[in-house]
Amino acid sequence: MTRARSFAARHAVARESNLMTSFSDLGLSAPLLKAVAGAGYAEPTPIQAQAIPPGLAGRDVLGIAQTGTGKTAAFALPILTRLATGPRAMPTAPRVLVLAPTRELASQIAESFRVLGKNLGTRVALAFGGVPKGRQARALAGGIDVLVATPGRLLDLMGDRAVRLDRVEVLVLDEADHMLDLGFIVPIRRIVATIPRERQTMFFSATMPKDISTLADAMLRDPVRVAVAPVATTADRVEQRVIFVDQARKPAVLARLLAREATGRTLVFTRTKHGADRVVKQLAMAGIVSEAIHGNKSQPQRERALAGFRNGQTRVLIATDIAARGIDVANIDHVINFELPNVPESYVHRIGRTARAGNAGAAISLCDGAERAFLRDIERLIRTRVPPMAEPVAQAA
Ligand code: AMP
């Protein structure tokens, strides 16, 4: 962890100084400025102010930033600028490849490209597992500019000759640390080996441990390094509490928290997929409606659950770490850790779901005696003690 922070500190060039404050200062074309305004972005975020100018200049970019900082537009806007010139995409040969670890993140990136590129006629396609390949292959055959893909499905489509990467001009690797956590290192290397060396590469990761910086060194050429909000600082904006409670009593405490507190839109984390389903059932018995999102759910089920959460139909979403990474839902009021994660950085990612775009948020962790060691690791990482709170008392019926 210390290593991750010191790397970020070492490479944090121009973090505060010389930041340009308006999109029109950044050198974007008129149609893109219109799309940015249409998306409701008033000012560039720090990662955008730092990464867009070198991105437009064709430089490689190494971005140390987590989801929630506006990094998608930081790479999408330079890419859309480039796509407005040059050859039209040939069938099965995209000009831009964005690799992302999960289907949720891939979908959100593709959506950002569609929103920001809507005045430019940019053709965007998605490729991820869990759904049939046919439609993805047909979209590619029609000729698309930007392919957003997860590594496994992309390799699959490459094997089918549904896609080739020899005309890729820009490669983006998003959430590189998460990719490696999921074991994608070999697929990534195989994919990158088929992309021309003459290309622009943008590489984003929330943390930069040794294996990630080795991968970055192998993929990037003389990159401009930009860094925003090292992972632990997100925690500063979130009001955190811990309730010490035995595992067996957690369902009752969770139900009381959700019933009593004005928790608003709440994301509850469990350690396992089964745990998530169990919590949904336990809450239902207490009369609280919730939905679970995790890797065992089908893609339509996940999308439905997310849409319900986004539009306010479902107030409580139960998620595992992997399913939740990259979920982009604004205004999550509370994060509740039904179980504490054994990887302290996951805690920071979890609670960061509430502190989007400068908002404050609140996070409550339910900690069993067996999880105290996890709590200690977390407190060491965030360099603060999480204050305890009493468990809510049962309401009279
Ligand atoms: P990202 O880190 O790319 O996942 O972005 C996080 C959220 O911030 C998304 O909902 C974006 O639509 C939003 N966003 C990105 N750039 C800006 C901006 N300049 N101003 C306001 N919101 C933004």
Overall description:
The structure is a single chain. The protein has 397 residues and is α/β, with parallel strands linked by helices. It folds into two domains: 225 residues, Rossmann fold (3-Layer(aba) Sandwich); 145 residues, 3-Layer(aba) Sandwich (Rossmann fold), CATH 3.40.50.300. It is 40% helix and 15% strand. The chain contains 16 helices and 13 strands. The strands form two sheets. A seven-stranded parallel beta sheet has the order 3-4-2-5-6-1-7, sandwiched between helices. Strands 8-13-12-9-11-10 form a six-stranded parallel beta sheet, sandwiched between helices. Strand 10, helix 13 and strand 11 form a beta-alpha-beta unit. Helix 3 packs parallel to helix 4. It is globular. The N terminus is likely disordered. The site of adenosine monophosphate has 14 residues, from helix 4. Adenosine monophosphate binds next to helix 4.
Defining traits:
40% helix; binds adenosine monophosphate; alpha/beta; single chain; six-stranded parallel sheet; Rossmann fold; disordered N terminus; 397 residues; seven-stranded parallel sheet; 2 domains
The quaternary structure here is single chain
Helix/strand/pairing class, anyone?
alpha/beta
Largest sheet: 7 strands, parallel
Total individual domains: 2
- What is bound: which ligands? adenosine monophosphate
Structure summary:
Helices cover 40% and strands 15% of the residues.
